[in-house]
Write a structure and sequence with these properties.
- The chain has 477 residues and is of the alpha+beta class.
- It has helices at 51-62, 67-70, 85-90, 101-117, 126-140, 161-164, 174-184, 314-322, 327-331, 340-353, 371-378, 380-397, 421-442, 463-471, and strands at residues 4-7, 10-13, 16-19, 22-27, 43-47, 74-77, 94-95, 145-146, 149-150, 158-159, 188-198, 207-212, 221-229, 234-237, 265-274, 280-281, 285-290, 296-298, 303-312, 337-338, 362-368, 404-408, 411-416, 450-456.
- The chain is built from 14 helices and 24 strands.
- The structure holds zinc ion (ZN) (3 copies).
- One zinc ion binds next to loops.
- One zinc ion binds at residues 199, 201-202, 204, 290, 292-293, 295.
Length: 477
């Protein structure tokens, strides 16, 4: 039975609330929760009667395979603040009651608009998927910085909610490897935050450091002072000096009574006696026992990880929208192209050459709009073939000394060396025509737009900013 009633403009129908242009779905306790069905709604409200339900639901959504579901706006329906740190990071705010939808509507709309902007290429590798998910979640929340949060339940002690949520407790250090790849690809810049040491068997960081017997590894030992009697030079544990009658200390070697510490004796160090094997030792070993897997680690064999703060670069922002499909590896092998790193080196030389009287040089780009849709239709292999055709077409219109590279899966950058800016402008118009024709031949039904531009290199220009100023406006379109 459907109960329909109207509260002002808020229309409530069981768990579905419609207000203005948004459809909200309320997840309640005891609901048979099926994340797949959420695709029909714009915003999810979680009724926060039970913390565990909240954590469970949030995890199901944020790790869902469908991008439209893992990016959904989630608000917690609660009259009090919610303190669980990971869930707080992975949700978008708190709503005291559905009569206050106005308070979350702007944010929900903002996230929704950002989601619409994102393209989703078919991504094969696990690493690429993880990078895309993280960038997508950050971008849709206008978030630039990925801070490691200290987290008791984390396998490595620190948690990057948008990314770590995808990892099991026991292989959470995998998140750090993903971030490393993303940093190498120029999607993030990093700042050192902390170093953690992890078990060399399971990479867990929940370790119990203690002093153990060098013979049998037992941590069950007692310590006592070592006493050095000056007159006779005897050194032994304090126990050797004690008697059963009073607390006077007598030297076992010369039988004299010890008087004042510092005067006739001192305590140069501590002696340990193992309760397990009775071994006596002055220097213990420090071992780190892993609480997770039980491995007894020598401290020098612990695995160190750097915990960093990651800041999304402009390239990262571009990739957040257009998708990351491990470009370097997918497209690097295309004949006639150089990697982005080499492209930048060549560009540096090109800027140097501008010192020569009358020398002019330019760089240009071709950006295929909706390349993600293209990839989705074609699959990676065919997209690669298409990109190859595009590169060959470009090469045949450029000078042999020009260089071509992929900025990302939908943008090709290239040079017009020793060319006047006006000529480069004309040339790129022609290339735009040719590439549109080429793409139209391959896709009759998909509307594809090609954007191009060319900029003149200037003396003193920074390679990084030249490339960014050329390509970055794309992300704003
Ligand atoms: Zn372990
Ligand atoms: Zn003595
Ligand atoms: Zn022992």
């Amino acid at each position: 039975m459907v109960e329909d009633f109207e509260k002002g403009q808020i229309i409530v129908d069981k768990n579905v609330v419609t207000y203005h242009d948004l459809k909200y779905f309320i997840v309640e306790l005891n609901d048979k929760f099926r994340p797949d069905n959420l695709i029909k709604y714009d915003v999810l409200l979680i009724d926060i009667k039970e913390d565990e339900l909240v954590t469970y639901v949030v995890k199901q959504i944020r790790t869902h395979i469908n991008p439209r579901i893992y990016m959904m706006p989630i608000f917690l329906l609660s009259t009090t603040d919610f303190h669980e740190v990971v869930t707080t990071h992975l949700t978008d705010g708190i709503l005291p009651s559905i009569n206050h939808l106005d308070s979350i509507e702007p944010r929900a709309l903002d996230i929704k608009a950002n989601i619409e902007r994102i393209n989703h290429p078919k991504v094969l590798s696990f690493e690429s998927q993880m990078i895309n998910r993280t960038l997508n979640l950050m971008y849709t929340r206008n978030k630039k910085v990925l801070n490691p949060i200290p987290y008791f339940h984390s396998g490595i002690g620190y948690y990057y909610p948008e990314l770590s949520i995808n990892f099991d407790h026991r292989d959470e250090s995998g998140a750090l490897k993903i971030l490393e790849i993303a940093e190498q690809e120029g999607l993030f810049q990093s700042e050192f935050h902390e170093r953690v040491y992890c078990c060399n068997n399971c990479n867990g960081s929940y370790l119990n450091y203690r002093e153990v017997c060098p013979k049998c590894n037992s941590s069950d030992s007692i310590s006592q002072d070592l006493v050095h009697h000056f007159p006779c030079a005897y050194v032994g544990p304090i126990e050797d000096f004690k008697n059963n009658i009073d607390d006077q200390l007598d030297c076992p070697k010369c039988n004299k009574t010890l008087r004042h510490i510092g005067v006739d004796y001192d305590k140069p160090s501590v002696l340990y006696t193992c309760n397990s094997c009775h071994h006596r030792f002055q220097d213990y070993y420090t071992k780190a026992k892993c609480i997770t897997c039980g491995t007894e680690n020598d401290v020098e064999h612990l695995v160190p990880f750097s915990i960093k703060k990651y800041i999304m670069t402009k390239k990262g922002e571009n990739v957040a929208i257009n998708g990351y499909i491990n470009i370097e590896k997918q497209l690097e092998s295309l004949e006639g192209t150089v990697t982005m790193a080499i492209f930048k080196v060549l560009l540096t030389y090109e800027i140097q050459r501008l010192h020569t009287q009358g020398y002019q040089s330019n760089i240009g780009y071709i950006h295929v709009q909706h390349a993600a849709a293209v990839a989705g239709v074609l699959g990676l292999e065919k997209q690669k073939a298409l990109m190859n055709d595009l590169v060959q077409m470009l090469k045949s219109n450029l000078n042999p000394s020009d260089f071509v590279s992929f900025y990302n899966s939908s943008t090709i950058v290239f040079s017009f060396v020793n060319t006047k800016h006006k000529e480069a402008k004309e040339a790129i118009e022609e290339m735009k025509d040719l590439s549109e024709r080429l793409l139209r031949k391959s896709f009759e039904k998909v509307h594809i737009e090609v954007r191009t531009d060319v900029i003149a290199l200037k003396l003193g220009g920074e390679v990084e900013s030249v490339v960014n100023s050329m390509v970055f406006p794309l992300t704003k379109m």
